[in-house]
Amino acid sequence: MRRKKLLLVILMGMLCVGACAKGNVPAGNMGTVSQAPIATEAPDVTETPEPTVTPEPTSTPEPTATPEPTPLPEDTTAPELVLLGENSIKVVARREFTDPGFVATDDRDGDLTASVQVEGEVDVNWCGSYTLTYTVADAAGNTVTAERVVEVAQPETVYPEGKVIYLTFDDGPGKYTEDILGLLDKYGIKATFFVCGTRNTALYKKIHEAGHSIGAHCLTHDYDVVYENDEAYFADLNAILDLIYENTGVRTTMIRFPGGSSNKVSMICPGIMTRITEKVTNMGFQYYDWNVSAEDSVTKVTEEILNSMIVDTPKYKYPIVLQHPENRKFSFDAVEDFIVWGLENGYTFLSLTPESPTVHHRIKN
Ligand SMILES: [Zn+2]
């Protein structure tokens, strides 16, 4: 009986241990410990580190790499600008002016000559003072400026030595032009032809090629047309200048006004001679009146024409003789005798140039 009770107690004890072991562990925690906490923490970990990791490597290395080479130089030195030629230049009006040039260099940027900016212009067809301003900048913005003054002026007069005669022929070319060229060649002397545009313009070339001077008289010798107004005068002047250029290749600057600068035939336009004589001078032309007249518009007697020239020439140091022999036989007949007289009396016959001493009449209109 006792053994049966003991066995029963042991069996009861074993059952109790098995039941108590199961009852101590919480039933709900067994499946959720490994699943629920991982699912909620994982998205937080992957989202936050990403934005903080990526901007750091791209922003930090760049600013540290570039500032290193720049702190070494700091350019505060302006380029050097050198003007070639003189800083003050005198140019004869209506002749070509070429800027002598410049050189610009910079200690950092090297040759900057091609970058030099030039402000201002020189008008060789108007006497006056012109300023040219040269400016250049280097890459750092340092600039340098230089100036040159160019004076456009009438040529300086060259006074010839000895006894001279400036023989001038107006209103040609004409019937006797080639004969006159023959006489000038025969005696080896030079003269000046103030030509018209309504004549045989092909003779301009022969005159020029023979070594004589050509000046502009007028396109048309019609006073009412030429002196109608200022614009009309310059239209006529430009036309005869172009005609001379087309036939000779010469851009002459020498002018003789129809009737001379003292004429009264221009009174149809009050004050025109005062204005245009001043203007042509500013434009760089030279105008020539005369101090000796052959008076071949007053008389047709060759003896009187010759006498007028012979009597008046010695009165002047630089006689400019006016004659119209190219279309007038009675005047042409006096040409050779006057040349002979001049040579026998020790004169040298010269052609006028822009540098020759001129004669200006007193202007009456
Ligand atoms: Zn004339």
Describe the structure in your own words.
The chain has 365 residues and is of the alpha/beta class. The chain has 2 domains: 74 residues, Sandwich (Immunoglobulin-like); 186 residues, Alpha-Beta Barrel (TIM Barrel). The protein contains 13 helices and 15 strands. The strands form 4 sheets. Strands 8, 9, 10, 13, 14 and 15 form a 6-stranded parallel β-sheet that branches. Strand 13, helix 12 and strand 14 form a beta-alpha-beta unit. Helix 12 packs parallel to helix 13. The radius of gyration is 52 Å and the shape is elongated. The relative contact order is 0.11. The N terminus is likely disordered. The site of zinc ion has 5 residues, from strand 8.
Arithmetic mean pLDDT: 87
Instruction: Please indicate the percent range of residues in DSSP E strands (runs of 2 or more).
Output: 15-25%
- The total of helices stands at 13
Query: For the record, what is the CATH homologous superfamily label of the largest domain?
Result: Glycoside hydrolase/deacetylase
Identify the CATH architecture of the largest domain. Alpha-Beta Barrel
Q: What is the structural class?
A: alpha/beta
Which molecules are bound besides the chains?
zinc ion
> Low-confidence parts lasting 5 or more residues at pLDDT below 50?
1-43
